[in-house]
Design a protein that fits this description.
- This protein is mostly helical and about 100 residues long.
- The chain is about 75% helix and about 0% strand.
- It has one domain.
- The protein contains four helices and no strands.
- Helix 1 runs antiparallel to helix 4.
- The protein is elongated.
- It starts with a helix and ends in an 11-residue tail after the last helix.
Length: about 100
């Protein structure tokens, strides 16, 4: 899985949750979660933008997992949308103060 596949899987996850297709939604949650866990275990600096993005997305995906287990599909859809927003958010690159 790569970055663009994560975005596509999150979009598909939203559709599956809206259709209340729990089995396929759970499979996508597992796939995205696995990719994010590998990203978070990488040697990259935890303070860099891509690591923070992965961490925020993981929080939202974990929320999807919990809400899906509770059968709360509307809230799971909202959490999946949050995951998509986090994953697709522009990376903020720190700039110098320069004066």
């Amino acid at each position: 899985m790569n970055s663009s596949e994560v975005a596509a899987n999150i979009r598909e996850l939203i559709v599956l949750l809206m259709r209340r297709n729990a089995a396929q939604a759970e499979a996508l949650v597992e796939g995205v979660s696995g990719f994010l866990k590998q990203t978070l275990k990488s040697k990259e600096d935890a303070r860099c933008a891509s690591m923070q993005q992965a961490q925020q997305t993981m929080f939202a995906i974990d929320e999807v997992r919990i809400l899906l287990a509770q059968g709360d599909y509307p809230s799971a859809v909202a959490a999946a949308r949050d995951a998509g927003k986090e994953w697709n958010a522009p990376k903020v690159v720190p700039t110098g103060t320069g004066n």
